[in-house]
Amino acid sequence: MNRKSSVLGVLVVLSVIGRPSITIAHDTWVQTATNVVRPEDVVHIDLCLGNHGNDHRDFKLASKLGSLEGASLDVVGPSGVRTDLLPEMVDLGYAPKEGFWSGRFIAAQQGLHCVAHTLDKLHRTTRGIKSGKAYFLVADSLDQAPDLNTMSEAIQVCAKPLGHPLEIVLETHPVLALSPGKEIVARLFFRGQPLADQKVSFVPRGATLAAELDPEFERTTDAQGRCRWTPKDGNLVLIVAHHSIPEAKGDGYDKISYSATLVLNVPQRCMCCE
């Protein structure tokens, strides 16, 4: 090996050592193949890993969780009953860092369902605590407009935090009230309290955000932790927020990094207007 190759090899090793862990710097999220199904239909639920949290500013897959250790993944039904989906999850990638995890859920009860995910991992001296949510609706008819009282009740349910350390909570119906031109209202909570003056990103699939604060796709929360954003097109949208406590210390760690995600399937036309 010549001197040039040797120096290059040292630089590559140093760059790898200096990179943050995937489980710390990347975001996890959950998404469904469809957001409206009939009773007894199968809902495919995916657990993905991407690099928005690594300042890549997009909604793309980047590597994969090597295992589900430290993770939870539940489907929360309209009555509040939780179904543990971890035993159903299978690795859909051939290589260790390719693909994503996916599971099947058979929908029985009509109403709005929440897919809730958490992850707590320790890497070196940093503890990464992540959460993710997605929603789907189970209805007898996929064409009939919903009852307004039922829709209002569903909004009240999804507007209640699940108790994740850092959590994005919707004040807009996550299925029926979405379409281009309709405002999405979300709140950010940290340890059960509204988190003000924090950046929340709304990342449509295929978009790459500008550096720092992108005025088209990012908002800052108000005193009540609330922010608003309006999609221009039908698309999958990743809502994501981050928060860190550098001075936090515990058993084996001296810093905590939090992230929260929520994926919405925005249709080209609002279901309520069909």
Descriptive report:
By secondary structure, the chain is mainly β. It has one domain (22-273): Immunoglobulin-like (Sandwich), CATH 2.60.40. The chain has three helices and 17 strands. The chain has helices at 3-18, 22-25, 148-158, and strands at residues 27-32, 36-37, 42-50, 71-76, 82-84, 90-91, 101-106, 111-123, 126-138, 166-170, 184-190, 193-194, 199-204, 218-220, 226-229, 235-245, 255-266. Strands 2, 4, 5, 8, 9, 13, 14, 16 and 17 form a nine-stranded mixed sheet that branches. The chain has a four-stranded antiparallel sheet with strand order 1-3-7-6. A hairpin with a 2-residue loop joins β11 and β12. The radius of gyration is 20 Å and the shape is globular. It starts with a helix and ends in an 8-residue tail after the last strand.
What descriptors fit this protein?
mainly beta; Immunoglobulin-like; 9-stranded mixed sheet; 3 helices
> What class, by secondary structure content?
mainly beta
What's the CATH topology name? Immunoglobulin-like
Instruction: Write the H/E string, N to C.
Output: HHEEEEEEEEEHEEEEEEEE
Number of strands: 17
By CATH reckoning, the class would read: Mainly Beta
How much strand content do the residues show? 35-45%
- Total number of helical segments? 3
CATH 2nd-level architecture = Sandwich
Biggest sheet, in brief? 9 strands, mixed
Uncertain segments: 4-23
Can you lay out the helices and strands and say which pair or pack?
Layout: H1 3-18, H2 22-25, E1 27-32, E2 36-37, E3 42-50, E4 71-76, E5 82-84, E6 90-91, E7 101-106, E8 111-123, E9 126-138, H3 148-158, E10 166-170, E11 184-190, E12 193-194, E13 199-204, E14 218-220, E15 226-229, E16 235-245, E17 255-266
Parallel strand pairs: 2-9, 9-17
Antiparallel strand pairs: 1-3, 3-7, 4-5, 4-8, 6-7, 8-9, 10-11, 11-12, 11-15, 13-14, 13-16, 16-17
